[in-house]
Amino acid sequence: MEDIDVDVCSINRRDWICRSRPTSFPIPEFPSLSLFSEEPALRLLNSSNSEVFGLTLRNLQLTTQESLHFYSNAINLYLCRDSKEQVLAAIAAVGRLAEVLRVDEVSPDLSELPREFEKLFALIPKWALSDDEERSELIKDASMRTLKSFVATVDPYIPAINEYLDSFGGKAPPEAATMLGTLAEYCLEAQIQLQNRNG
C-alpha cells in the first residue's frame, strides 16, 4: 500500500506492535471508542478528513472485539462479523478512507542530474527504492530477463555514478543524486541475484 497521511494509532483496541497508549482525545460522535496513539496530535481528527473518518466509523460500527489500526503504509482492520457481505462492506468503507488519506507520490526532479545519465532517468522511479525490504522483494519477484536487461542498462554507468557522487565530498547530495546512487546499489544487488539463480 502507498503511504497515508496519518499518525500511527489504533481505534478500539491497543496496537501491540507499536505499543500504542490510550489517549485522552475523544473521537467525535463515538465516545465509546478508545483511541490509542504515540502521537499527541492525530491528523485523522483534522477538519480536512474528519468527515470521511466519521463516516467510516459509522459504517463500520465496531464491536468490542473489533479494531482499526493505522500505520504510515497500511491500515489493518480486525473484524468479527456474521457474514461475508458484512466483511466486504467493512473493507470497502476502509478502502474509501484509505483513498482520502493516501499521499500522492511526487515524481522525483531529475533535472539536476548530469545529462550523461539521461538514459537512466526512466528507471529511477521504479527501481531506486530506498526501502531495503521493498528492494529485496522487487529483486525476488523480477524475472531473469528483467534483471538481465536492468543490469545491462545500468552497469556501464556505475563508475560514472560513483565519480559523480564523490564530487559532493562531505556535503549531502541532493535527492536526485541519492536516488541515482540507490539505482547503482540495486544494480549490484541484481547482479548477485542473477549469480545466485545461475547456481
Q: What coarse outline follows from CA principal-axis ratios?
A: elongated
Radius of gyration, whole Å: 22 Å
Query: How far apart lie the N and C ends?
Result: 33 Å
The DSSP helix count reads 7
Order of helices and strands: EEHEEHHHHHH
Tally of distinct domains: 2
β-strand number: 4
Beta-strand percentage range = 5-15%
**Helical proportion?**
40-55%
Query: What characterizes the major β-sheet?
Result: 4 strands, antiparallel
The neighbouring-strand order within the major sheet is 2-1-3-4
Low-confidence stretches: none
Mean pLDDT: 83
Structural class: alpha+beta
Explain the layout of strands and helices.
Elements: E1 9-11, E2 35-37, H1 50-60, E3 67-71, E4 74-78, H2 84-101, H3 124-127, H4 132-141, H5 144-154, H6 158-166, H7 175-197
Antiparallel strand pairs: 1-2, 1-3, 3-4
Report what the structure shows.
It is a single chain. The protein has 199 residues and is α+β, with helices and mostly antiparallel strands. It folds into 2 domains: 9-101, no CATH class; 115-197. Helices cover 43% and strands 8% of the residues. The chain contains 7 helices and 4 strands; from the N terminus they run ββαββαααααα. A 4-stranded antiparallel β-sheet has the order 2-1-3-4, with helices on one face. Helix 5 (144-154) packs across helix 7 (175-197) and helix 6 (158-166) packs antiparallel against helix 7 (175-197). The mean pLDDT is 83.
